[in-house]
Amino acid sequence: MSVDPMAYETQFFGFTPQTCMLRIYIAFQDYLFEMMLVVEGVMLKKLDVIPGCKISPSQIRKCTEKFLLFMKEHFDKLFAKMEEVLLQLVLNIPKNVLLPEDRVQEQYPYSKEEFQALQDELQQLQQQCRAEAAVEQALRAELEEQKAVKAELEKILQCFDGLENICREHGAGNFKESFALLTQSSKKLQDVLKEVEEKSKKMKQHDQL
């Protein structure tokens, strides 16, 4: 059987010509085997009718197998010729024939160098797409983080608004001014506490002496 891949024919027919020939060969071979079994069955029936026949069924089977081998050898030779004719004249696309889906290549021919350049450009575009996708994913993550921070800030602002309302209810005036005074007082208290701690340390050192 032919070893030529016949890729263009496979593209046109949708199957490899070699596969087609193999199926035809198997179909003919199966038919030959079935025909020999039928012939053998007829011979066995005829022997039962003939009186005094000394030919046994095993002998008939041996003769059938020999005849089948003879037929198969001749069939293989004939099929090889038939396969050569079919592959060359029936299942073969001439070199000057162009399939409709490949006519665009005739209109826009390109060399191997141009094809390689297109491949390189395609690879670069794919890398850029992957990089842009990664940047987009990072931006989405940052946006989600900003949304979470915004939600926390809104909670803090609501808390400040609540404190300001409480200050107004108790006559404390502007919450921002009160908060500023509270911060200054806290700082003064921290300074006083620090001064007291330093004096306490000095007194302990004096007592130890």
From TrEMBL:
Q: Which Pfam families match?
A: Mis12
Location within or outside the cell: Chromosome, Centromere, Kinetochore
The protein's matches in InterPro entries, at most eight in alphabetical order, are given as: Centromere_Mis12
Residue spans making up a coiled coil are 108-209
- Secreted found in the keyword field: no
Q: Name one GO biological process term.
A: kinetochore assembly
Q: Which PANTHER family match?
A: PROTEIN MIS12 HOMOLOG (PTHR14527)
Q: What protein does this entry describe?
A: Protein MIS12 homolog
Name the gene for this chain.
Mis12
